[in-house]
């Protein structure tokens, strides 16, 4: 079989939500990310660093059991406090040492998990 070189021009990720308007509000206003109309009923998000994510409607959406989006922050305590003030509730997982804010403190980056209105799991983390 001949070897064919691939030239990737761009890359992006995507995930589903049942309610695009709720996603627009959450990602744009609560998380403060750059969100715009992606055409055809999609949302387009630009993450810090320039990566793009599309959010698409799926009426029978079932959230994944894993983290779909990680946001790296400079100060995790500040990030958690600001998001909590905006109504975000942080998740607790068995097997992880987590402080009173929900920040996991042992064995890797400091991380705190939460969900979007569709139940998709997200995190803020500090390296």
From TrEMBL:
Coiled coil: none annotated. Transmembrane segments: none annotated. Gene3D superfamilies: 2,3-Dihydroxybiphenyl 1,2-Dioxygenase, domain 1. InterPro entries: Glyas_Bleomycin-R_OHBP_Dase, Glyas_Fos-R_dOase_dom, VOC_core. Residues 8-127 form the VOC domain. CDD domains: VOC. This is Glyoxalase. It comes from Cryobacterium arcticum.
